[in-house]
Amino acid sequence: MSLLRLPLVVGAAAIYHLCATAPAQSATNEQVRGSSNETMHKLETQGALFCLQIICWSGPLAETVSTLSFYFPDDSVPLVIRSLRGPYHPEPPSLLFVIAGTLSILGGLLRLVSYRTLGQFFTFQLSLRKSHALVTTGPYAYVRHPSYIGFLIWYIGMFAMHYSPDSWIRGSGVLSFQVVRWAIWAWAGFFVVGLSATLRRMPEEDRMLKRAFGKDWERWAERVRYRLVPGVY
Asked: 127: which strand partners?
């Protein structure tokens, strides 16, 4: 495996770690009583994000150790690492791998920019904070929920990178282990559940902000009509 892969592999995992860490915490009296979907979202953020962090770091760390082991004498590398590092490929990663990894990092950066733009108003729970303001600048000048599309882009890029034909996961033989296959299915399941919750949560957020800011929100919604992708949705 080429060392050129590691910045993308580790970078995408590090970006997710930051994206899965709440930028701000809201007080209980600031949280809006939402639907059953909001209750499920709260449970998801409490447990699923931590599980995803473990899954998303496991592969990159294993690939990093395996890749670096090629640059040490075989007799100094533990047998378990040698048996799982896959074939040696000194050539640069494929174009698909590079595009997927770059897409993942860019998606994560979009979510982090959304965190920074909203500042203290960005919480994982549906909340109206003290002195809450309607933010319409930065990525919020183009879509109403940029952090969600950033997260989805990260997820798609990460999945495509790790399951491209020249990925370590597919070349190392770890897919022969049942626990690895379970982890992959869990990762895919989290994506489906997260996507479903996101699509249901966006209208709730819009209704909350419309109640709070009235005409200001309506003028913003007229100017920024799309929730996720400009011109599409």
From this structure: 31
User: pLDDT tens digit string along 101-144?
Assistant: 999 999 999 999 999 999 888 888 778 878 888 999 999 999 99
Tokens at 78, concatenated: 């533990």
Look at residues 115, 111, 114, 125 and name the one whose alpha carbon lies nearest to residue 40: 125
- Of the two residues 205 and 22, the one the predictor is more confident about is 205
CB 5 within 8 A of CB 97: yes
The answer for residues whose C-beta is within 8 angstroms of residue 161's C-beta and 6 or more apart is 8, 9, 12, 97, 100, 101, 104, 167
Backbone angles phi and psi of 202, in degrees to 5: -55, -45
User: What sign does the dihedral 56-192-232-120 (CA atoms) show?
Assistant: negative
Provide the b/e sequence for 63-102 (b: ≥16 CB within 10 Å): bbebbebbeeeeeebeeeeeebbbeebeeebeeebbbbbe
Helix (H) or strand (E) holding 12: helix 6-19
Mean pLDDT of the chain: 85
pLDDT at 86 over 90: no
Residue with tokens 């080429």: 2
- Using an 8 Å Cβ cutoff, are 112 and 11 in contact? no
φ and ψ at residue 115, rounded to 5 degrees: -55, -50
Ramachandran angles phi, psi of 154, nearest 5°: -55, -45
